[in-house]
Fold each of these.
Amino acid sequence: MSQGVKPRRRYDSRRRDEQAAQTRRDIAAVAGKLFRERGYAGTPMPRIAAEAGVVVETIYRAFGSKASLFRAVIDAAVAGGAARADVPVEERPAIRAVIDAPDPRRQVELYAATQPGIHRRSGPLLRALFGAAATDPELKALWEELEAGRLAGQGRFVGMLAEHGHLRPDVSVEHARDVVWTLCSLAVHDLLVVARGWTEGRYQDWLATVMARELLAPPQGG
């Protein structure tokens, strides 16, 4: 009799994890669209769930809170897509190109080249977050967390330059980090591109020029 019994198939946890990750990406994509169109306060969780084809409880299980979902949407925008957000920063192609460039001025140019796209994708979300943070303590904490993360990330870029002896001798790592954090902020981007009408190309070139001047030691023999 045992010959006619089929063995029970082992549960494929990897497939379940892949499906859960895809569900998270789908929810984040829908939420990003709605947050851009309607703002944070104007996008209720039931609306996100309805458009994503899930129940509200699925969103809470996947993200924990609306603010955490908003954070995931911003992370995806900065990375250039929800799938890229799961990739370590150092392994993303644009950042890998910065790390691998042999010349410090080229590294600065490539780093500056990442900024217009980041601001284009994440700017609408961050502007909405900044406005809502004034009256929502949870969103205020999220804004501060994102800015702290940006400071740390740009500190790693500056640390790489310092490690290879490329910083100006009169500039500390902390000072250089603060300069990059300021120059690459959404506020500076919006002053030049939004308020003054600069093209993204002009902004990128200006950013590379100013960062190189403020951070890099002069070429040997120069």
Note: The chain has a mean pLDDT of 91.
Amino acid sequence: MTYLNLVNNVLRRLREDQVTTVYANTYSTMVGDFINDAKGIIETAWDWSHLRKTIDISTIDGIHTYSLLGTQDYGKILTIMNDTANMPMEYRPQSWVDEKYVLGAAAEGIPTFYTYNGVDNAGDSQIDLYPRPNDTYVIKAKMVIRNAPLAVDADKLFIPSQPVIHLALALASRERGETGGTSTPEYFALADKYLSDAIAMDAQKHPDETIWYTP
């Protein structure tokens, strides 16, 4: 569903005229802001299948810091695999990796561990690998990458639309003060119902992620 479709879905429920562009007037622009507010909340509520992607990194001999291209710091790593060495990589705290590189002669070899290391000049997240690669290795990072805020009419929403529409409607209702029928708390309750149902539907694809294990 596009940004414009989402805005018009909310406007209709508010008994407002539909628009041909999100920025047609002050009110539709504000509804667009509520859409993005709702989108941000819904995107972070669950690791949606719709947002899961694999980022490939090809290491260079002697270089240990790499950018996760296209993530723009919206990403969350689920797993990292050293595809060349056929092995999963393990997370280590930044302090642990820093000690290896700063306090002594860092080992070189097959990258086995990783940690986050800020963002690059383009705004993409970076990771450090350890040991320092001694050859070319293909590293595959399975990630959840949230999308940038919707900006133009044709921008698409990739997560389920109903929770976003109804949460934006609840936010708009709270700002307006009344909608002539449904109360604001009812709108928020309805948005929560749509969200919980959407998560339940998506979670069945990843049942292992909803089970807590005690060590």
Note: The longest strand covers residues 75-82.
Amino acid sequence: MQNTHPSLTVGEVAQRSGVPVSTIHFYEKKGLIEGWRTSGNQRRYERRVLRWVAIIRVAQRAGLPLALIKEHMDRYRSTVITAAQWDVLNREWRAMLDERITSLIQLRNQLDSCIGCGCLSLEDCPLRNPGDALSAEGPGARLLAEPPGK
């Protein structure tokens, strides 16, 4: 993906973005950023990678998984991301974060009645066993073996 604009070394990208060189390599391995090798086998990056790294860091700090970040950013891979494109990403990510915040607030509010024992078979567990519905399935922690989402 080489171009005619001055390129940056991996060390320069790390220094300017404030992340370790190993993180730059990790992002590249995960397909979040792209670089190329010179004839001397040195890694080079376009200057726009600095904006990509900044966006990745913001999204990670918000708790978004790398796979989701990549999926959303891949739409703009061949361009320098614009303010309008950032606005689209921001709105999509904001909606996901709002859902997560709502879910966490509900969980926090339900924890008042949870003793945190993990038995999942209490008669009155509004979190995982409302109305003791699991007692019909037998004794013990019935939900521990179930995969999430069931």
Note: The chain has one domain: 8-124.
